Amino acid sequence: MAPTHAFKVGEIAVQNSLVLAPMEDVSNQAMRLIAKRIANPGLMFTEFVSAMAIHYGAVKTFRKMRVHDLERPLGIQIFGAEPDMMAETARIAESMGADIVDINMGCWVPKVCKTGSGASLLKDPDLAEQIVTKVVQAVQVPVTVKVRAGWDYSLFAAPELARRFENAGAKMLTLHARFAKQGFDGHADWTLIEQLRAAIKIPLLGNGDVRSPELACRMLRETGCDGVMVGRAAISNPWLLRDIRLGLEGLPPGPAPTMRERIETAIEHLQLLVAVEAEVDNYEMAVDSPRHADAELRACRALRGQIPLYIKGEPGASQVRDRLTRCSTIDEYRAILDDFAAVRAI
Ligand SMILES: Cc1cc2nc3c(=O)[nH]c(=O)nc-3n(C[C@H](O)[C@H](O)[C@H](O)COP(=O)(O)O)c2cc1C
What we know:
By secondary structure, the chain is α/β, with parallel strands linked by helices.
């Protein structure tokens, strides 16, 4: 069956209307490869990449921009407050293989906003527009912008900004339908997505609180957005992400994952992240080589919060969570998860 709701971002074809959100410490290459294999979103985004860090040559930050052909189309998201630095980072993102360069104007955390980047730009429309203009001029690939509704509740700044970005050459907008001051409090107000849809011609992704196929379909229907961006619901649950994509295509959910499948996917996630951390393309090599012990430790630590979520909701899962959050090797994770599955099978 032909996928429904395909759309284009500039010349980039997006095959279905499900989009994986950019998420710091989550939507790394390991997670994206698993999401692609199981859920096949039409488009995915990297974690945000600091233009400042790239400018000063932080190796760890360059790693975030590695692109594998299996993940395409992929947007690399960048953030910063200095137009020339943003243009420079956009050029590097393009040279690393980005299909799209996305500019973050939605991050509300003080560490980012106090540098004038992220959602803080919503308070400075001239600078925000200048950044979009410079980034558009710097690259051939389409440039997109992810915004929140505005800084404070009092001002729905997104429509005016979005029109300026569209005129500056942006090829798509994403609206996380909360105000920056809200953080993650309250609900996303989807009526704001509908209002923004009416204000611009370029594609618009709706974002905020989509946790099920039903909610995704409702967002698409009620707001008229072109695609639905999903963040938190996708963390350690590629099967829910798959069901959301199927729902958007008018299809029933797929089979629920077995316990074995969840555990093997959790282990695959760890192995892939070791490979990403070790900057090798073969994860078996990364796991087997003693040279990559550091990468294994880093990956295991980074996923301490996410691996337990693979078995969340299962009876007894909360009892093993503490043990899982102390693992430093893949073998330790596997031993605990295998024990958990064995006890449940009795
Ligand atoms: C752990 C985490 C990290 C995030 N990192 C980013 C980021 O790097 N860039 C960005 O634009 N948004 C980031 N976000 C916001 C998400 O992209 C998304 O806008 C938000 O979670 C709302 O969508 P949801 O309700 O589907 O989770 C992050 C969210 C979470 C939970």
